[in-house]
């Protein structure tokens, strides 16, 4: 289980770092606290749940935590879309972050399918 997670583990951590930086930007520059807090929660939860999955005691536990990560990355994509459509982030910021989120979603989906 640990082997298949290294790439997604690193990508989710880098995504979380970007989310934290975006959160700081949205609070400091845009004075936006509500939507950004939701994104901060879901965007950092992805990697935290992957870490839990990698330490899981069973295949079922691993799959359950990876499934939570998948749901959290989908939620993050929603908040990014909403922040973009409400002009808190630019199209360029959105495309960059959404692309990373989409890549993570695809990786997580494959991991979950392979864990069945």
Task: Show the helix and strand layout.
Blueprint: H1 2-29, H2 34-54, H3 59-85, H4 91-114
Question: What brief labels describe this structure?
Answer:
116 residues; 4 helices
Low-confidence stretches: 1-5
Q: What is the rounded distance between the termini? A: 12 Å
Average the pLDDT over all residues and give the rounded result. 94
What characterizes the major β-sheet?
none
The sequence of SSEs as H and E is HHHH
Q: Could you give the count of β-strands?
A: 0
General description of the model:
The protein has about 120 residues and is an all-alpha fold. About 85% of the residues lie in helices and about 0% in strands. The chain has 4 helices and no strands. α1 packs antiparallel against α2 (about 35-55), α1 (about 1-30) packs antiparallel against α4 and α2 (about 35-55) runs antiparallel to α3. It is elongated and about 45 Å long. It starts with a helix and ends with a helix. The relative contact order is 0.17.
